[in-house]
Amino acid sequence: MKPISIIWLAIAWMSSGWVAAVESGPVQPFETDRFAVAPSEIDRLAFAAMREAGVEPALPCSDEVFLRRVHLDVAGRIPTLAETRAFLRDPSKDRRSRLIDRLLESDDHVDYWTMHWCDVLRVKSEFPINLWPDAVQAYHRWIREQVAANRPYDEMATEMLTASGSNFRDPAVNFYRAVPGKGPEPIAAAVALTFMGCRIEHWPQPIRTEFGKIFARLAFKPTAEWKEEIVCPDPACFDALDVRLPDHHVIHVAPGEDGRVPFAAWLIAQPRFAEAGANRVWAWVFGRGIVHEPDDLRPENPAAIPGLLEHLGQAFAADGYDSRKLLRRILHSRLYQLSSIPRSESSRVAELFAAYPVRRLEAEVLLDTLCDLTGTREGYMSPIPEPFTHVPPSARSVRLADGSITSPFLEMFGRSSRDSGHILERNNQVSDAQMLYLLNSTELQNRLARSPKLRALTRGKGSRKADQVVEAVYLSLLSRRPTHRESVAALGDRAATRAPAPPPPQQLEDLVWALVNSKEFLHRH
Amino acid sequence: MNPDFGNLTRRRMLVRGAFGTAGLMLGGHPLLGKSTAPAVAPAASAAPARAVIQIWMWGGPSHLDSFDPKPDAGRDYCGPYTSPIATRADGVRICEKLPLLAEQARHFSLIRSMTHGINAHETASYAVQTGHPPGRLLWPSLGALVSLFKGYDHGYKDLIPPYVVLTSPQGRFSECGFLGPAHKPFATGGDPNRERFEVEGIVSSRITDERQKQRRKLLGELDTFGRALPGDPALRHKEQCEEKAYELILGEARELFDLSTESPEVRDSYGRSTFGQSCLMARRLVERGVPYVTINYKGWDTHKQHFQTMDRNLPEMDAGLATLISDLESRGLLDSTIIWWGGEFGRTPKIQWEPPWNGGRGHFGACFSALLAGGGFRGGQVVGASDSTGSEVADRPVYPNELLGSILERMGIDPEGPLPNPLGEDLKVMPAGIDGFPRGDGRLREIM
């Protein structure tokens, strides 16, 4: 790595004139000086684009950073104290690979990925989706089963696009019910957004209307059961139909045929289908797509790294649309394992993924993390009076099926509204109100002060020394050991770090409070 | 040289050029690409209003048992409320449980012909507060529009956010709609009727100022990660939010929420209830310059035990709302403050005596009432009329977009002006003609 850094320095000096690194070693405790994985095709394409743009990539991230990052990105949680200690003790060369594999097979991954899908597929009881609780449960369970079984993406898409039947008994039809508004155009918008990565708003009205014809023949028939609906092709529409798609391909629908079937077959044969799917998975990992935003694919919005999306799309299709294989491919890249500390001041760092993008934890992930750390529970509320949906006290918010079951915390931290499936419906930006809550709310103060878990840290076997307690707090919250400077700051003075007694409860509470409010805790990095 | 230099612990140091500008980009609206000047209505006869207090009658209050009594319709319609009372406004009678409001009737006008025909809470809540029937787009509520046009992008400077909800948000729909979370309301939490109104995050009972300051120092000392990434825009933004939060936590703004500075007589006159004290809090917020305050007033979805509930709730509402009007008036704030009272719909005029309701009223979107006071709206008037039983609009139907458009116009925001939006679509703020709602005049000219 060293010689490459020097070459980069030289290029940086010559090309843009600003002064780059004075010294270029890794920043402790966030970086390391060598990669843990071999370069892949992703790396070849991405690093070539960076070279082309004169952007120096970040250094590889440290084991501590990788451990926390991959837990958050794959399983939607931070590692436990025991997991952190075990990983940091593991001397084997392939520890990162084995961790990736273990997490991809975990239930937490299934829950977290299901949550991502439920945002896109608009799983919500109330306005404007109005699926209502029974259908939400059926739809959510179906989605979770697809993720758990790692169902090939093309099959999952085809099943949703061509589904007919009761929304309670054939859960995939809820794709057609979970749209805001009635009529073919909202459905067309949802299909374009979900499976083509396109915003129909960019299409001229005549094209929107024409595209909607495929779905104009769907009938929605209520039953005697509350909020049950049968979705099926309208049996009264027999005529043949030609529909011109946005790319001018014409779909011929034979008399009596369900036009959605030839459409779905056409759609999954398009390279764009695999690319849009791969781009979304990429965006779930990195927080931004190779094409950004990931649901805004169009010629005027090209990818910053040429060839990368094509490569991933082809690989995704060649692997039989195996989403976990795609994820594994991404997570094993050197690009994914870069540190988040940029080594270039170029404005193109983000779009070239020249440093891992820093962003706030999602509402559900942050809430679950706080609950886990403090041993507390969240109370949820729902505006729907009946039928009552029971949320067991042990439920993690990542697992909530229904976007209408919520809490003030989840709303404040920008959980997806699931109103249209639009990527921007989730907001991971810090706000003033969030900082008020984190810095000073009675609710959070009480969680920290009354936490049995935090109190247990000071007890353990025998009496803990002050520096051991601080180390345990750091490993629990930040998945790393404190630096010497941090230990001193936390304990007041140098002598205190060697004190035989645990720090007083108030000092411990203040330390935990400070770490919860730290940038490092609140952001994935 | 960069002042951060002294704090850099890492060995690699960057000499920074124009670092920091990326952080500033996050200061504006995260979704709006371009900033557009507010649409300002042509100068009206009166000066524009400066604030709206929205009293949201959550659940849908009965119009017959509040501002549109039908004493001649018989027991099946009016139940025990058979003798409405005269008010200070000529010829206007209201429910006998509202004597204090009757005294204030010259200051408010009633709309007795509100309609949208929607009988489901979530859809009706959306329609009444956004002015739009459900469709492909998710429109912002009136409060979010005021936040957009009168908030931080247009000269509002206060630390208290421009759109405040007392005390909890509704959860029925996203108030901000497609405008995005920057225009979500700030919900106070807490209860203003308690000994201490603990506004979540601003007023804390456990942590002293001294400890607060020590903690802040510790937070800075432990910011190892922040020092490694001094130029990251997301982290910069977090710092800015933190600074603003501390100004609220340690500054004078929190005194605003200390209701103990009001005299016991004033507090009593508003009523010692969560609603009454919320009205008092709303007055203090408006006095300070907050342009939009919503009081989410629960308890009006009276399917069962309707009259027992009304016997309990109406006096509480009467005291809070009447005192709010008179207090604003005596402080010279009523001319610049619009009070809008109303829910998502009314309730079935015909009482459901049969089980399981046993004297309840259901949802009713065909005809209901709303109240407007202050802000340049004429008082003592009645707009429109319902039929003899309150079952249908008899005269001058008023759709939600007309009501909201009128409030916007009084706030100096042109309802026909462009609405900047992150979708990049060509949209108007609150046009007179909206798909699904018939095209009317678009404004309540009778009282403007």
Biggest β-sheet: strands ordered side by side in the sheet of chain B:
6-5-7-1-8-11-4-12
Count of the domains of chain A: 3
Helix and strand composition category of chain A: mainly alpha
Query: What percent strand of chain A?
Result: under 5%
Query: How many helices of chain B in DSSP terms?
Result: 12
Would you identify the regions of chain B where 5 or more consecutive residues have pLDDT less than 50?
1-45
User: From the alpha-carbon coordinates, what is the Rg of chain B to the nearest angstrom?
Assistant: 24 Å
How many separate helices of chain A?
A: 26
Overall pLDDT metric of chain A? 90
For the sheet with most strands of chain B, the description reads: 8 strands, mixed
Oligomer: heterodimer
Strand order in the sheet with the most strands of chain A: 1-3-2
What is the CA-based Rg of chain A, rounded? 25 Å
Overall, the morphology of chain B is globular
What structural class do helix, strand and pairing data of chain B support?
Answer: alpha/beta
What is the end-to-end distance of chain A? 21 Å
Domain count of chain B: the total is: 1
Strand content of chain B is 5-15%
Binned, the helix content of chain B reads: 25-40%
**What is the CA–CA distance across the termini of chain B?**
59 Å
CATH class of chain B: Alpha Beta
What report would you give on this structure?
The complex is a heterodimer of chains A (525) and B (448). By secondary structure, chain A is mostly helical. Chain A folds into three domains: 26-106 and 272-286 and 306-356, no CATH class; 108-268, no CATH class; 444-524. In chain A, 49% of the residues lie in helices and 5% in strands. Chain A has a three-stranded antiparallel β-sheet, with no helix packed on it. Chain A has a two-stranded antiparallel sheet with strand order 4-5. A two-stranded antiparallel ribbon of chain A has the order 6-7. In chain A, a hairpin with a 6-residue loop joins strand 2 and strand 3. In chain A, helix 3 (63-75) runs parallel beside helix 5 (95-104). Chain A is globular, with a radius of gyration of 25 Å. Residues 1-22 of chain A have low confidence and may be disordered. With 448 residues, chain B is of the alpha/beta class. Chain B has helices spanning 21-24, 75-78, 99-103, 121-130, 142-150, 209-221, 224-228, 233-250, 264-270, 274-288, 306-330, 400-410, and strands at 51-57, 85-86, 93-94, 108-114, 163-166, 186-187, 292-297, 337-343, 346-347, 363-364, 368-374, 382-383, 385-386, 393-395. An eight-stranded mixed β-sheet of chain B has the order 6-5-7-1-8-11-4-12, sandwiched between helices. The radius of gyration of chain B is 24 Å and the shape is globular. The chains are: A mainly alpha (525), B alpha/beta (448).
